[in-house]
Amino acid sequence: MDEVIRSLTEAYGPSGFEDPVRSLLRSMVAPLADEVRITPLGSLVAVRRGTGNGRRMMLAAHMDEIGVMVTYVDEKGFLRFTPIGGVSPLTCVGARVRFENGVLGVIGVEKREDPHKVPSFEQLYIDVGATGREDCPVRVGDAAVFERPFVAQGRRLVAKAMDDRIGCAVLVETLTRLGPTPHEVYFVFSVQEETTLSGARTAAYGIEPDMAIAVDVTRTGDTPESQPMAVELGKGPAIKVQDAGMIAHPAVREWLMRAAETAGIPYQMEVLERGTTDASAVQLVRAGIPSGCLSIPCRYIHTPSEMVDREDVEGAVRLLLQALEGSSQESVTRNASR
Ligand code: CO
Ligand code: ZN
After folding, report:
1. Which ligand is nearest to the CA of 195?
2. Given Cys at both, which of 29, 41, 123, 270 links 240, Cβ 3.0 to 4.6 Å?
3. CA 217 / ligand 1 centre spacing (Å)
4. 62 alpha carbon, closest ligand
5. CA 3 / ligand 2 centre spacing (Å)
6. Which CATH class is domain 2-65+160-336?
7. How far is the CA of 302 from the centre of ligand 1 (A)?
8. Domain residue spans in the chain?
9. What pLDDT is recorded for position 338?
10. CA of 32 to the centre of ligand 1 (A)
């Protein structure tokens, strides 16, 4: 699975500019799915038909990542930029960014009165080696992503864009290993989660699933002086109870917990006080779709070095396989109000 994770995390795909990562994902899922399609907004959908008598299940992982967008090119060829999604200026100074055309940029910072203070985005610029507007290889509106290689070190995996290429990798691996299931399973690789959640929202409208699960990262509380949180790296995938955008539907939560317990997979309960996922948008589609999340614990989210644990990733795949293969229609909806 390492090579899948490496290629996915190193791929280019900031929100709204997902073409390269979508092509890569399409090449991975096309041989495995009964049908592959792209929604009008650009999300990739791979369908695995069920053996009948099941439900329509949607699994969603977002393929977009945070990044930066050029807002202005000055007369000396330096670029001003705005964040795409939740980028912090803390992680910017000295960082390298890569544009879709391959151009590399270095983020620099202006002279400031107090050099120990975190700079604002207005004080930062990108240097692509140009000397003026004429020889600048990128233009206003071009987007770039942070540049970092994938590294596997023991159980830990470090890369940019683990949020949420690790969710994409979990979906690809689940589709690869999925045996006969009664359910019709829609694997959705959504666009624009980091900005508007619009990819998953519109994909869900088209699919009209009976139930939806977002597979995304969640933060942990296990680093020095961290804000307290009960999720730790390496203790298993986390089943979401609540985040800032939603309360997970109890039927989804319990379905995932039963699958973990049946298969003997360690798991954690997640209550996330800030941030949300595609599931918060999906649950509001049409008359409402029971939705939940399976989360991969991740340290340093929205920095260029996001860290996950290999066993948590494997546990997430096994949990989804158990949930999809081991459940009938009535066990899925046993506690659902619909
Ligand atoms: Co994110
Ligand atoms: Zn995410």
Report:
1. 1
2. 270
3. 8
4. 2
5. 21
6. alpha beta
7. 6
8. 2-65+160-336, 67-146
9. 44
10. 27
Mean pLDDT by 10 residues, the chain (338 residues): 97 98 98 98 97 93 98 98 97 97 98 92 98 98 98 98 98 97 97 98 98 98 97 98 98 97 97 97 98 98 98 98 81 54
> Considering every ligand atom, which ligand is closest to the CA of 190?
2
How many Å lie between the centroid of ligand 2 and the Cα of residue 278? 8
| Catalytically annotated residue among 10, 18, 193, 270 | 193
67-146 has CATH 2.40.30.40 classification = yes
Q: Do the Cβ atoms of 207 and 221 come closer than 8 Å? A: no
Which ligand has the minimum distance to the alpha carbon of residue 83? 1
Known catalytic residue at 18 = no
Question: 277 CA distance to ligand 1 centroid (A)?
Answer: 8
Confidence (pLDDT) at 167: 98
